[in-house]
Amino acid sequence: MDMMNRRSFTLAALAGAGMTAACGNGVGSNGAAEIDARVDNTLKYLYSNHPNARNLEAKANGILVMPLITEAGFGVGGGYGRGALRVNDVTVDYYSATKGSFGFQIGASQHAHVLFFMTEGALAEFRRSNGWAAGADLKYAAIDEGQTLEIDTTTSLAPVIAVVFGQAGLHVGATLEGTKYTRIIP
């Protein structure tokens, strides 16, 4: 009888843990409102400091705004952040960005970035993927020393353009390659 009680207790505990794990998905929380407020502030900062970004927004089919990505590494590194996908200035989905790296590295940094989906096909591929990874098809719009956003002819023809800005910290390089974007429920 004692063994049966332990077994029942263990099974009940495992079942309860599985059921409560679903409670962490944020349904009914204000996570979406927090992300939207951060996205609004990030876009306000981007457009006030780099007005040329408005030209990208006007031509884009959708934009993914990641207000804060935190990266750290000491040999092995990683990064994480959450943001929102907007189409016609309306949030349609929320995403997380995760990144892992291995190699000679040390430090920590934070930055924001915005992905401009310049073609309907690029946006559709991003939205239907189970986990979209930034790769070689991603082009960067450079911010020069005078803090001006520069877009050259090659970049302007790319299906996805990334703008990385607001870097802080001591971690060399702010690249998005290897970053995986996954739809979330905040």
Automatic annotation (TrEMBL):
Residues 99-182 form the Ysc84 actin-binding domain. Pfam families: Ysc84 (PF04366). InterPro entries: Ysc84_actin-binding. This is Lipid-binding SYLF domain-containing protein. The lineage of its organism: Bacteria, Pseudomonadati, Pseudomonadota, Alphaproteobacteria, Rhodobacterales.
